[in-house]
Amino acid sequence: KQEVTQIPAALSVPEGENLVLNCSFTDSAIYNLQWFRQDPGKGLTSLLLIQSSQREQTSGRLNASLDKSSGRSTLYIAASQPGDSATYLCAVRQVHGAGSYQLTFGKGTKLSVIP
Amino acid sequence: KAGVTQTPRYLIKTRGQQVTLSCSPISGHRSVSWYQQTPGQGLQFLFEYFSETQRNKGNFPGRFSGRQFSNSRSEMNVSTLELGDSALYLCASSLLYITDTQYFGPGTRLTVL
Q1: What pLDDT digit, counting tens, does each position of A21-40 carry?
Q2: Is the pLDDT of residue B99 over 80?
Q3: A110: chain B residues, CB-CB within 8 Å
Q4: Which of A7, A10, A55, A107 is most buried as measured by Cβ atoms within 10 A of its Cβ?
Q5: How far is CA B37 from CA A74, A108, B34, in A?
Q6: Contacts of B107 in chain A (CB under 8 A)
Q7: Is B72 left (phi over 0), alpha (psi -120 to 50) or beta?
Q8: CA B61 to CA B45: how far, in whole Å?
Q9: Contact indicator for A10, A22 with CB cutoff of 8 Å
């Protein structure tokens, strides 16, 4: 059974700092990995999607990398801003059975950017 | 382009009742997935529909069911509600099956008393 772990569970940084969020998964036979952010009481906003054949994806100040063999992904946020404060979740898509694919989420990292 | 919409946004029910939640995907999207989010378990996958067929199912009891209509709109039904069903139910849509980015709605907050 796939397990997705995100460490740390919470992180507090001063504004302007660069930071890295970590995501690890136990089964490397994944189809893709997606990073999301969730603001309190809201749904999820997709940040980046990395297919299993890709090593990284970039969008603005965000860069996500994927190392399938080691079961790890990182989300790099450059020059953090207070508006980046949210919970960040990673999710892996994998084969769950014949013709079946399942999305498994980590518990998230709660980021606070202090002005 | 309008995002994913979910109705109702809030719902209060009592144990033993049944509830139906609705999800309208982004126009043109054919895949719809449902998730349950609780503080203890986090986000858990319920099921996924593509072109009116259930393609994937999570590890939830048969009390949880869903369907997708020809216009891609989806409904989720929970019968015989239990206190533990209290959660935020999230719906997500994507253009393609499996390979594409998922876009989430704001969720339906279900409280079971």
Answers
A1: 999 999 888 889 999 999 98
A2: no
A3: none
A4: A107
A5: 23, 12, 10
A6: 42-43
A7: left
A8: 12
A9: no
